[in-house]
Write a structure and sequence with these properties.
The complex is a heterodimer of chains A (about 325) and B (about 350). Chain A has one domain: MetI-like fold (Orthogonal Bundle), CATH 1.10.3720. Helices cover about 70% and strands about 5% of the residues of chain A. Chain A is built from eleven helices and two strands, in the order αααββαααααααα. Helix content of chain B is about 70%, strand content about 5%. The termini of chain B are close together. Classes of the chains: A mainly alpha (about 325), B mainly alpha (about 350).
């Protein structure tokens, strides 16, 4: 009799609990409740889908040679045609013109989104990775390592981002990939400071004390206690920074620091079309501008929403 | 601790940061190979063999010494005003002189924008933050988010399109000039002695508005004022949007505090609660981010100078990068760094002034 009950108990489906997963789904549901964040998320997702499609199925977006604007062009030197329905899909948002070539704004903007998002994501993720680990270790270790790190970040913060990026581009060379490295160098201290602050707080927690007392090494402490807890503020910062980095990247192209006039990038497209502004033609500037603006606004909405949801004080 | 001692301590902390800044600039310089730095001093037509010239120039530049001694040489050169020379498309000559000529325009734009946005942001932020989720609040949030997220050059171009003279034919709003510092028509046939027609710069402050006022030239002063409007408005809007976001968040945060509830429940008039209890505490987090915002503003000035052709140190720095003028890049980077450090110093002192807790 006893045996059978034990057998039955064993056969009962045991509901496995995944506290982390439940937490994530709860966060996600809270995020969906925030209308503005939802809008931001939808638009951002849409941008990522465009970038992904462009990467995997470029033909669907009319992209043939993605990294050169010339491949999109029609060689005629006339005043650019405005947005209209009469020129088929590529001409829907009008054309821009430079050096006697017409470029359909819709197609080149879509092609530019891939590079803009790709490079911004690369900079933010790598910068966040390096900065967070360095900051967490320094904050946890304390002592002279921490002091040195803080002085280094002080120096980085004592020069405006754009100027520092210009200086490093000057040093590395005026190429796109060098601009990416320059922005990485400029951006990691932000994350190092953020992670350091959090690490200092987590270090004083009882569970870290317990782990240290039971013989956990610094590396183990940092990777299994500090980093998981630093992750959510870093994640919020990433979503907020993605827009800023994309702006900075566009600004570098706009200023003409990166010497590649035919690279599809939204800031570059604006700078190439801005001469038409003097003639009162708005679309060569405004259309790519809207593509940047929409992305930065929606990523900021998403970031604000994430911050509200992940902040334990405001949560639930 | 008294505010006095806090300021002295803060000033002392400036020294290591300044040395660090010089170290970074020095690092940028030393990352270039010796041959590159020496190239200027080597004359292939000279009868002296190239290798001898190379060695002489290297010795003259102090490149044979250990790296940390070179750092001290660099410090000495920096503080004795030997910043080298630069040759770019807009300016050729001593870097220090170039910075003296173009820096005032940059700091003028930055200061005007900062003052204007603070003056607008505090009352507007108080009004909006005191009425969360009202129509004014929602409108304010949408506008501040849009201007905050908009790249500065896009905002500048948009304003040029809307308010620029002769941009759109028949636009009643298009009355403001879009490029330059003043109209050359306002100068007159015989330029005054304090005006240099070849560079378009005026003396003694190199700011056309103030120079014209000093010399009593009302026509030029009016012209320079009109040319200043769009660049300053562009910078103000982008900075205002950011400040407004922080003030609003601070106001909402502060109005949920216990002491505000206490003040309300004991019958303090609402306007006094907002003014004394909410706003004062809402400004504290705003002041802390002002330093960071000023860093963004200085970057924005570079962009605005380019958009509006308002020649300043940003354009000088940009030209130095594009024309590979190494000492120009180092000099402008250093001056931008010092400017930001000064701004951070002011912000920290203001912070200690507003929030007495920070002094202890």
């Amino acid at each position: 009799m006893v045996d059978t009950t034990v057998m039955q108990a064993k056969q009962l489906p045991v509901k496995k609990r995944h506290p982390k997963l439940e937490d994530y789904s709860h966060t996600f549901r809270l995020l969906l409740k925030n209308k503005l964040a939802l809008v931001g998320m939808i638009i951002t997702t849409f941008y990522f889908i465009i970038a992904f499609l462009d990467l995997v199925f470029p033909r669907y977006l009319g992209v043939t040679n993605a990294s050169n604007l010339l491949s999109f062009s029609i060689p005629t030197a006339v005043t650019p045609i405005g947005p209209s329905f009469s020129h088929g899909l590529p001409g829907l948002l009008g054309y821009t013109e430079f050096y006697s070539h017409q470029y359909p704004l819709l197609t080149i903007s879509l092609a530019a989104i891939k590079f803009d998002i790709g490079y911004s994501l690369f900079i933010v993720l790598i910068g966040a990775g390096i900065g967070t680990v360095i900051g967490a270790i320094a904050g946890f270790k304390g002592g002279y390592i921490d002091e040195i790190l803080m002085r280094i970040t002080d120096v980085f913060f004592s020069i405006p981002f754009l100027i520092l990026a210009l200086a490093f581009i000057f040093l590395l060379g005026r190429y796109i990939i060098m601009a990416v490295y320059a922005l990485l160098i400029v951006w990691w201290p932000t994350y190092a400071r953020l992670a350091r602050g959090q690490a200092l707080y987590i270090k004083s927690m009882k569970y870290v004390e317990a782990a240290t007392a039971s013989g956990a090494s610094t590396v183990r402490n940092v990777f299994s206690h500090v980093l998981p807890n630093v992750l959510s503020p870093v994640f919020v910062q990433i979503s907020l920074d993605l827009g800023s980095i994309m702006q900075l990247f566009a600004v570098l192209f706009y200023l003409g620091v990166i010497s590649d006039p035919y690279f599809p990038e939204l800031g570059n497209i604006i700078s190439l079309g801005q001469n038409w502004l003097g003639a009162g033609l708005w679309w060569p500037v405004i259309i790519p501008g809207i593509f940047i603006l929409l992305f930065t606004v929606s990523i900021n909405l998403l970031g604000d929403g994430l911050r509200d949801v992940l902040d334990p004080k405001l949560r639930r | 601790m008294e505010l006095r001692y806090f300021i002295i301590r803060r000033l002392l902390l400036l020294i290591p940061t300044l040395l660090g800044l010089v170290l970074l600039v020095f690092f940028l310089l030393r990352m270039f190979p010796d041959t590159y730095l020496v190239a200027r001093f080597v004359n292939p037509k000279s009868p002296v063999p190239i290798s001898v010239q190379y060695a002489n120039a290297k010795a003259a530049l102090g490149l044979n010494y250990p790296i940390f001694i070179q750092y001290f040489f660099y410090l000495k050169a920096l503080f004795t005003g030997q910043w080298g020379t630069m040759s770019t498309s807009i300016y050729t000559g001593s870097v220090l002189k170039g910075i003296e000529l173009y820096f005032p325009a940059t700091i003028q734009l930055a200061l005007f924008a900062t003052i204007l946005s603070i003056v607008i942001a505090i009352p507007l932020g108080t009004y909006i933050g005191a009425r969360p989720n009202s129509v004014a609040d929602q409108t304010g949030r949408v506008f501040s988010l849009a201007f905050y997220a908009m790249p500065v050059f896009l905002l500048g171009l948009l304003l040029q399109l809307l308010f620029g003279q002769n941009v759109i034919a028949g636009n009643p709003l298009g009355v403001l000039p879009i490029a330059g510092k003043f109209s050359f028509n306002a100068v007159g046939a015989i330029p005054p002695p304090w005006f240099d027609p070849s560079t378009g710069l005026t003396g003694p402050t190199h700011l056309p508005l103030f120079d014209a006022l000093i010399h009593g030239d009302w026509k030029l002063a009016y012209s320079s004022f009109i040319y200043l409007i769009l660049p300053v408005v562009t910078l103000t809007l982008s900075l205002l949007a950011a400040i407004l976001r922080f003030i609003r968040a601070g106001m909402v945060d502060a109005s949920n505090q216990e002491y505000v509830k206490t003040a309300r429940s004991k019958g303090v008039p609402e306007s006094l609660v907002i003014k004394r209890h909410v706003r004062k505490n809402a400004l504290i987090p705003t002041v802390t981010v002002l330093g960071l915002l000023f860093a963004g503003l200085l970057g924005g000035v570079v962009v605005v100078e380019t958009v509006f052709n308002y020649y300043g140190m940003g354009i000088l720095a940009l030209n130095a990068v594009i024309n590979v003028a190494i000492y120009g890049v180092l000099g402008t980077t250093f001056v931008f760094g010092v400017t930001l450090m000064a701004a951070n110093l002011i912000v920290d002192i203001a912070y200690a002034f507003i929030d007495p807790r920070i002094r202890y």
